[in-house]
Each structure stands twice: as structure tokens, then as C-alpha cells.
Amino acid sequence: QADCAQHFVTRLCESRNPSDLELLWKVSDLTVSRLIRKTLSKKAETMVLAFTTTADKPGGLEAPAGPNYYQILYGFHIHFSDYRKAAHAMLRYANALGCHVGAVCALSALREQANAYLGCANALRLVQPPSAWLPRPKGSPVGSSGADDDSLQDVLTLKDIEKEYLRAHSLWKLGRELPATTLSVTWPRDTVLQLCALGMYP
Description:
Helix 3 packs antiparallel against helix 4, helix 5 packs antiparallel against helix 6 and helix 7 runs parallel beside helix 8 (188-197). This protein has eight helices and two strands. The radius of gyration is 18 Å and the shape is globular. By secondary structure, the chain is an all-alpha fold. Residues 52-61 and 145-151 have low confidence and may be disordered.
């Protein structure tokens, strides 16, 4: 049954037809629905994200070889009003994108990462306050307050996610003003200094 569900999900997602994707939401059988969610989650984890670094397309985002399973998983949870799981899907996506924001930032990765954090925050705002938190993804720096902070909390709040959105969005804004070779991932205080130097900090 799991193999059938995986084949079913793959065929619908790869068709890239919105009406086909809607069939995923319309499955009424709870067991099959769980298999669909599990399949989407596994597909997201193994999804390849590619960013170009060529001179003609610096920091450009290559078209994915297949569908964006993180976004499909997000839509799946939103449809069933499971906003916390939807937020978690976008947090995982933002964390995966972080692998492409290395010593030299890829602008497309930063833009996509900022959007992922924004989607995560928007979904988390719809969760009741006592449950409006997420486990920090393994290996993620989210939750650290700065370069001198050696401890990373295991629970992330809406405030933590909003801070990460502002960081990624600010770095993206910087990237549009600075040469790609000079824009590097920095701690928040360094980002503010760079924004001030360019007259972009209010």
C-alpha cells in the first residue's frame, strides 16, 4: 500500500497540474491520507535544490528537476488546517535552503529562504499560543542570538522565526546592492552595520 501511495503521489506531483494536486487533498481515507503525508515528507527530504554561481546568472536559482515537495506538503497541511505542521514544513525548507547560503550567498537562495520563513511565521500565527512553537531542525543555527552564543535552544517560537525572516530578507536586500563576491553570511549586528553603511537601515 505504501508503494502504491508513493507512486500515486509522484505521478500527481510531477504532472504539475493544479487539478491533479487537488486530488491529494480530496482523499478521505485516513490511512491513505497519512501515507500521502509521509510520502510528501520523504520526497521533500530528498529533494535536490540547485543554485547556479555562473557569471551570467550569479546566484541564480535553477529550475528544479521535479516538483517542490516542501511547498506541496505545506499546502497539504494548510488544506487540513494543520497549521503547525505546515509551519514545520516551511521551517525544514528554510533549513535546507541554508545549505546553499554559504561563504558567498546565493541571492535566489536567500530570497527563497526569506519566503520560507515568512510562510512558516504566517502558519504559526494561526496556531494557539501554547502550541505556537517548533522543534529546531537538526544542524540548524536558528535560535542562536549571535556569534558568541554557544547554546542553541531546541524549541523555536514565532519570535525566533520572525527574526530569521528579517535576517534572510535583509541579507537579500544587501545582495542586490553589493557584488556577489563581497556579500557573506553575517551575524545580525554585522548585517545592520552593512545596511546602515548603504543608507538602507531606517
